[in-house]
Each structure stands twice: as structure tokens, then as C-alpha cells.
Amino acid sequence: MTRKLQLLCDANPMAYGSSSALLSILDHLDADATALVRDVSAELLGTDPAVRRTLAVDVKDPHAVAAAIADEPLDAALVVSNLTNVEVYLRRGLPVFFVDILYWYTARKDHLVWSAAERTYAQAFPGVKERLQTLPAASRPHLVGPLIRSLPPRSQAPRGTVVNLGGVRSRFIHPDDAPMFLEGIGHLLREAEPLLPEGPVLVAAGADACHVLERVLPPRAKAVCLPQHAYLQALADAALFLTAPGLNAIFEALALDLPLVFLPPQNATQVLQLARYEDAALVPPGLNLPALDPSLPLPHQIDDEGAYTHGVLDSLRRLTRSDGSLRVMAQHLLHQIHTVSARTDARLAFRTALGPKGGAQIADDIHRWWRQRPAHD
Predict the structure, then answer these.
(1) Of 8, 82, 111, 215, which has the maximum CB count within 10 A?
(2) Residue span of the structural domain in which 234 resides
(3) Structurally, how many domains does the chain consist of?
(4) Which branch of life, at top level (predicted)?
(5) What is the mean pLDDT for each group of 10 consecutive residues in the chain (377 residues)?
């Protein structure tokens, strides 16, 4: 009898989208999944039934990862948007299935993974298909649709508001070191609270961000760190969705046909993503940091994420210390809420352009590869 695939899972530890994308694949995969976790990935993957067990390790330290998996019986690695340990897995002889949920974002695509992995994937987003067409076929990843899970049905009587801030941390950002984004969000939510639908206001974020939010939110709002199934149910029950300009959280809201309002960006990826959402008419222009602070440039792609992130943080400090800038952001947010129904067609067009969900396709590829391997004992 064929034994079950022993799959190592490695997702970017600080992004909601990477862990949720990983889960969208595992939902369709018959495998014993062992996930390396830290920070946001520990909060999401550590409580999810799709993951058999977790190994707590610094997944940005290849030596620590090599030691953590040295005695693990593994057949393959499924890696989502974390290049740090790919060479560790390849030296171990593990076939690597690599998923880049932000393929459009970075300028360089010369990492070993694109030629050495068993199979690579790029999640759909504006600009991805065009970029893939410029690459030689041998190094071109397979384009897949949104990597989001099956969603609960939308409530027939939606109430309240869900606010998604993501993990609010990265290699370059920690809520304790850069609280100005959360403090600014608290101000904006206090301004917007009278316009929010009747019912609860749940502000979903990483656990450490929730500690900062508790002291700045309006009375009706509650900061929560939710397992993903609970978060998706809250989303399906909500009448309105406010979100930082992330990636998979947007895809989930679009799939639910949920009225969608954008908050200002908090990091480098979100600045560039918000520009693309503006281009697609999902949000009126005027909220992005380069529009509010002309000293911050708006590149088409990123060469040095660390340097640009420092510029984003400096910009956020300036903007959140300016009463005039906070007033402009609040006015933009209130305008979005008033006019959210006017962008229904734009949301549908964007969702349609992304194509069908991609998790099952990647799982099918891994299943096919596993079946074609020599007999397993």
C-alpha cells in the first residue's frame, strides 16, 4: 500500500497571504504536513487542522532550519514566498514545489529555485502574465489563480464590519518599533465609526499588533487574532470589509462579493499593491503614501525592499504626525464608505481577471508527482 506523502511546509513567517496560500493547497492535498513556523505563520498554521504538526524555528535562519529537519523523514518541500531555505532543501535532496504569491513585486528573478525546483508557480495579479511572457519557457513558473480556501457562504443577513490589518510585521517592521501605522488606523477608525454598519467591529491582526490596537480603537471595535476558519466565517457574516491593501485578504473579500474599503498601506508591498488596485478602480486615488507624501517615490518594482521599507516607515511617521494628512486620509476613507457600491462592477472585473482558485491545481500536480515516483514503502 502506498504510504502517505511526508511534506515539509515553509511559508513566509510574517505575511498572512503566505500562510493562507499554503493552507489553500493543503486543503486539497493528501499528505502529512509538517510546517515550519514563526510569528504570524505560527498563529495561523499552529491551530489549523490542515497541518499535522509544526516545528517552531527561525525560518529566516538556514542553519537553524537545517538542524530542525535533520532527523525528519521527508519526501518533498512545499515553499510559499520564502527563498531563505530553498538551498537547504535542495542539498537535502528534497524536491521543492515553490509558490511565489508576489511574483510581480521584485525586479530580480535569478534565484536557483527557478531552475532547480521540481515545479514553480506564480499567483495571478496585474502584471504577472505579461512578465511571464518575457521569460524563457524553462524558467517560467506556472500561473495559478488566487490561492484562497473554500469560503463559507455569505450571510443572508450580514452585520457589522471586519477590518483586516494582516500580521503588521515583517523582516523590517515590528509593531513595538513602528506603532505609528496602528495608531493612525485607530484614529481613522474612530473617525469612520459612525458610518460603519450596525453590529460588531472586529479588527483582525497579529497577536502583538492586537496589544497595541487595544488602546487606540473606538469602543465598538475589538482587536482579535483569529484562526483562519473563524476569520473567514466572520468575513462571510460581515456587511462591510475594511482592509490594508494586502493580497489574499483582498482575494477572499472579492470571492465573497463583499463591499470593500481600503485603508492606507503599512509596508513596501502594500504601497505597490495599492497602486495596482487604484489602476483597477477598486479604490479612488489619493490614499497611497506617495500621493500624500511626495518625498516617497513609487517604483514599478522593488530592487531593495529594506531600503524602500525604511522610506515607507519614515513617510508613515511624517503623515501620522500631521493633522492635515490624517484629515485627508479620514476624508478619503469616509468617501470610500459612502461610495462603496459604485465600485461593484470594478470588483467583479478584477475577480474575473484573476481566474479560478489555484490551490487544487498545485495539489493535483504534487499528487501526480507522488504517484509517478517509484513504489513507496
Answers:
(1) 8
(2) 161-354
(3) 2
(4) Bacteria
(5) 88 84 97 91 87 94 97 97 96 97 85 94 94 85 97 97 81 62 93 97 90 91 93 98 95 97 94 97 98 94 86 93 97 98 98 97 98 75
